[in-house]
Protein: TIGR03766 family XrtG-associated glycosyltransferase
Amino acid sequence: MTTKLFKFGDRALIHLFNGFFFLTLLFAITSPNIILGDNKITGAGTTLFTTWLLITVVAVVVCVLTYPQFKQWWYQVFIVQKLRTGVLILGAVVLWQLIFVLNVHPPIGFDVGAIHQALTDTTSPDIKAYFSLNYNNMPILLAQLILSQVFATKTWLFFDLVTVVLVDLSALLNILSIRVLARKKVAAALYIHALWLLIFPMIIVPYTDTWVLPFVSGYLLCYIVLAHSQCKWPLKLVAAIGFGITIVGAYFMKPSAVVGVVAIILVELLYLLKKKPVNWSAMLGLVGSSILVAGGTYVVTNHAISQQTHIQVNTAREIPAIHFIGMGVSGDGGYNPKDALKMAELPTKQGRINYSKKVWLQRLRQKGVGGYLIFLIKKQRNDTADGSFAWVKEGHFINQAPKPHGKGFAGQLQQFVYLYGTHLGDLRFIAQAWWIIWLILIAFGWRQRTKIAQVLRLMIIGGFMYLLLFEGGRSRYLIQFLPAYLILAALVYSDSFAFFKRVYRWLNAIPSRHQIQAQTDKKANTQV
Structure:
């Protein structure tokens, strides 16, 4: 009975994932970001830069297919020496990140700007009101405050460099996860992460989306070590301690980032239905260690935040969670300035809860069951289709003139990332193309159903469902879940390639119209 329940749950998970993920892939393929030339939808079309890039890619593919010497060189460099090549490429990308940030580090608006302002301005009524309402951003403010005191600087360049370090640390932890699970796929992980980092401009946005990444990658790595039977027990004990610490770090940096922990718990419970021997004493000891460490870390961190004296806030003014649920069914499912203003106007916590619940239920009734389902499909598109992760689509994203003003090399880079830059469409096209390839690598690897792969799939599903329920409307919120995408892509890409090979062989096995006609004529002649 338990085995049947496990198989049912395992199949249900993969079917649910495929339903969500292939819909996301469809939305990505039909995104306006992938339009070549003039783009009347986004207003930022591609230029000759993308044209020459595509010509170069096609030329390389043709050379690999038609020139034996070039093919042999390509095979030797990227297949035989793949590990060394992957390390060199990733190192070159890290160097490129530093060059990019040193040349482009503008002040950022929206919540990021408020956090940066609060480092020096602690008396402004607007700043006090912001952190009273958005108390969840107090941890990143305090983290940035400590770093600014240690390094004696509060510049945007400094915090952008910190963001680079944190994002790259996340990538390193992801690659270590692959190293634990499948050593032969480390090179693929290096290639995948290098391509991601190469076209990820969010490194100049020092906010929770990027700062939470090493915590998410950290708890995934610790879990993988714990779940991998070949790891030794002393290492598993260290992983159990790290698991507790990184979970709490992720929670305080961005609470929604612990969706992956829920996925881990649910899949572990599912796998208990399999009739396999379990070392209960060891497992309970490791789980207990994680819980104790997490509890202690939470108490210490929470006390430090609650006792901070940097800025005076009124925690009774904090926005309730149901506000974001109500906002999640308005408009396109994203930020609603009217709801946000109402949270600032209502004086009591209960009043804010009552208002949010009221507008949430009103919006659900107005949509009805069918309307709400259609709304969720559209919202899934808004949440996941954009491979640039909604770059410069936030209000006051870059908090200065949106038109590039730099000169020389820095000015050319600004043309790719500023709202009115001539190459913004090129950046979006390249990011979208990679997003589509990335999704394809994951989508067609459904044959791999290891426990780790299922955890990562459920984490991705959980991220989708969280954004459908709460405020979403743009793909920037997917960034916190990217470690699951990156690790899963590296694990299942070979299964996806195998699938395409099977399809190719099947298509070749189908006789063409001319072959069928020739066979018919041959039979007719034989009969005569």
Notes: The chain has one domain: 2-312+385-527. The two ends are 63 Å apart (CA to CA).
